[in-house]
Design brief:
Length: 441
């Protein structure tokens, strides 16, 4: 189905130009007789597109099965998947090229590659989570796994004895200290990079970029040499938190830097035009606008720090007892507890290790949910409680303005100053003149 445009019947272009003193205004070009093809949908697929995908997928699976089972001496599941995918891509290109030009073939193949990459990453994530939960299902049903420590439990004891309470508490304390240092320092550094700038800002951005690729064992060695050997002379939870901070800080800085760059410049200009200082603009305009992105930056940093094992191994030490003092004595964390469990050859200890890994995954998921609830709303979006409070405030303002308007109309506001006494006489309401003044007649 095609659509054509017809010019208006009463349109006179010469007369239209004469109205503007000979200068022709901007007009819509004449599209009479021009055909417009059917609009291509990008969110839904047609029957032909579904046939191409399913046909190429069936052909790729058949070719891989023939090569691995009948024609060639090939074996292995991974090789079969790779051959099937390559055959699928080739057949899909062939099917699309039968009815489309080269540009659309490239577009379709790129779409398939991007979707395949997303499916691959999501499948790997699901496999890791499901495999960990299945292997840890032996230890998770026992309540003592969450309420006891390993102080009185050995490698040969059953799963009904011992737990990881000390590791959960140690992880929460260490990540809390690391966040208390990382969040203000990282966001303040990102604000400096965006709002101040200069040569030193470029140097700081370069250092932050370099630190994102810093090996975790190097951070652990740095804290071990600078803090443990020179200051505390013992492994502790605070030293482990400092090592985690070194790993989290560049992630938070770079992610926050990117988020603050996305804040529109006209918001800052509007704030400056109202006479506001730079730092009030940052505090009341820039940071609230980028709140959800800053929360995402903190989440990325937390995900990097909460799963670190090698720096914690060098700085916190391994213990089987509860320690809530981060400045004295070893304090184990969940990743380090997993490492301590799975290096044992006993099946019960390995089951405890996978159970600890499952608890770590659930803990990270819980922290992400809490962070999203705190800062997941975009700028200007209000919660239900905030909307109800704003509505109630608006109703109070409306009632106050209405009452004030009635008082003004009645002449009771503003009050007339009285000569004597404590009370004021109500002002006489103004009257509208009934006739025109003499000088206007």
């Amino acid at each position: 189905m095609t659509t054509t445009y017809e010019p208006a019947a009463d349109f006179d272009e010469v007369e239209y130009e004469a109205e503007f003193d000979g200068v022709a205004p901007t007009t819509i070009p004449d599209r009479s007789g021009e055909e417009i093809g059917p609009r291509r949908t990008v969110r839904t697929s047609t029957l032909d597109e579904r046939f191409n995908v399913l046909g190429a997928l069936a052909g790729g699976l058949a070719i891989a099965t023939l090569l691995f089972g009948w024609i060639g001496p090939l074996t292995g599941v991974i090789g079969w998947i790779v051959v099937a995918f390559l055959a699928f891509i080739g057949l899909y290109m062939l099917l699309v090229s039968l009815r489309s030009d080269f540009q659309e073939v490239k577009d379709r193949v790129a779409t398939v590659l991007i979707v395949s990459a997303g499916v691959l990453l999501f499948g790997a994530l699901v496999f890791i989570v499901v495999y960990t939960l299945i292997r840890g299902a032996e230890a998770l049903p026992y309540p003592n796994f969450f309420t006891q420590t390993m102080e009185l439990t050995g490698p040969l004891d059953p799963l009904s004895s011992g737990g990881i309470l000390h590791a959960i508490v140690g992880t929460l304390i260490q990540i809390a200290i690391a966040l208390a240092i990382t969040i203000p320092l990282g966001i303040a550094t990102a604000v400096f990079l965006n709002e101040v700038g200069g040569r030193f800002a470029r140097f700081v951005r370069t250092i932050a970029d370099a630190m994102t690729a810093l090996p975790s064992i190097v951070a652990g060695l740095f804290v071990y040499a600078a803090i443990i050997q020179l200051v505390t002379h013992q492994r502790s939870g605070f030293a482990a938190a400092l090592a985690i901070t070194v790993m989290m800080l560049p992630i938070v800085i770079r992610a926050s830097d990117v988020v603050l760059r996305l804040v529109p410049a006209n918001l800052r200009e509007a704030s400056y035009a109202l006479g506001t200082s730079r730092w009030r603009t940052v505090w009341h305009v820039v940071l609230p606008t980028a709140r959800s992105g800053l929360v995402t930056a903190v989440i990325l940093g937390t995900a990097r720090g909460i799963g670190e094992t090698s720096p914690v191994l060098l700085t916190s030490g391994i213990t089987a007892v509860m320690n809530v003092n981060p400045f004295s004595g070893p304090m184990i964390s969940l990743p380090l507890q997993v490492f301590d469990f799975v290096r044992s050859p006993e099946p019960n200890m390995i089951a405890r290790g996978f159970g600890t890994a499952a608890v770590l995954i659930l803990l990270v998921l819980g922290l992400f949910i809490v962070a999203r609830l705190i800062g997941g709303r975009g700028p200007g979006q209000q919660s239900d409680r905030q909307r109800r409070a704003a509505k109630a405030e608006s109703m109070r303002d409306l009632q106050r303005i209405t009452v004030l308007g009635d008082r003004v109309a009645a002449g009771a506001y503003p009050p007339r100053p009285a000569a004597t006494g404590d009370y004021a006489e109500p002002a006489t309401p103004p009257t509208r003149p009934t006739s025109e003044p003499e000088d206007q007649k």
